[in-house]
Amino acid sequence: MKIFKVGDTQKVMCESCQSLETATFGLRDVPFSDGHGLVKNVLVGVCDKCDRVAVIPQQSVPAIKKQLDARKKPIESRVPAHMVDILNLASSSLGASTDFSAALIKYFIHTIYENEKTADSLLKYLDSDLAEGKAQKRISLKGRLVLDELKTIRVRAHLTSNTDVLKAVVLKINDDVLVNPKAQLINELKSVAATYA
């Protein structure tokens, strides 16, 4: 992949001009195609003839995705207070702060999504005493993949709501990190947690 710098030029097919033109790379605010919002100060190739964005280099895609993700509504679930305590305790045991809790949940959601058989085991967690309690605290997750993965897990596990999936995932975290820690998993999670320190 070629990395472009401000001031670099490239021949591109400009959609506005309907012809092959020279584009000069520079920083611009680029609106989303749906007209709602924009990505500020991103490197793009601007047609020298019509002054419109003609090309977006691959290196700018992560910045654009970040802005798209920020527009997504978070997944919100209310859970019993002790479940947030479990997440905080698990994060702490891995050497991370409580801010790591959302990443920990997303990690488990992703691993459960990747292994279809694991989703079948989630029901057992909802039958435990720890699954009960008044929903007093909130879990909020954002991410490009987490909503789709959560929906898939919900279907595979035959659960009725995202809240049930999140409760089961928290209780699986309790089991795998705090109650019956698995050395390989703990080492992997500690490595991930170190990036949050």
Report on this model:
The protein is built from eight helices and six strands, in the order E-E-E-E-H-E-H-H-H-H-E-H-H-H. It has 197 residues and is an alpha+beta fold. The chain is elongated, with a radius of gyration of 22 Å. 45% of the residues lie in helices and 23% in strands. It folds into two domains: 9-71, Roll (Ubiquitin-like (UB roll)), CATH 3.10.20; 75-194. Strand 3 and strand 4 form a beta hairpin. The strands form two sheets. The chain has a four-stranded antiparallel β-sheet with strand order 1-2-3-4, with helices on one face.
Task: Produce the secondary structure layout.
Layout: E1 9-14, E2 19-31, E3 38-47, E4 53-55, H1 61-71, E5 75-80, H2 81-93, H3 101-114, H4 116-120, H5 122-126, E6 135-141, H6 146-156, H7 162-179, H8 183-194
Antiparallel strand pairs: 1-2, 2-3, 3-4, 5-6
Helix pairs in contact: 2-7, 3-6, 3-7, 6-7
Q: Distance N terminus to C terminus?
A: 31 Å
Structural class of the secondary structure composition? alpha+beta
SSE pattern: EEEEHEHHHHEHHH
Averaged pLDDT: 90
Q: How many β-strand runs? A: 6
User: Helix coverage percent of residues?
Assistant: 40-55%
Envelope shape = elongated
How many alpha or pi helices?
Answer: 8
Main sheet summary: 4 strands, antiparallel
Strand order of the largest sheet: 1-2-3-4
Number of domains: 2
C-alpha-based Rg, rounded:
22 Å
Which residues sit in consecutive blocks of at least 5 with pLDDT less than 50?
none
Strand content: 15-25%
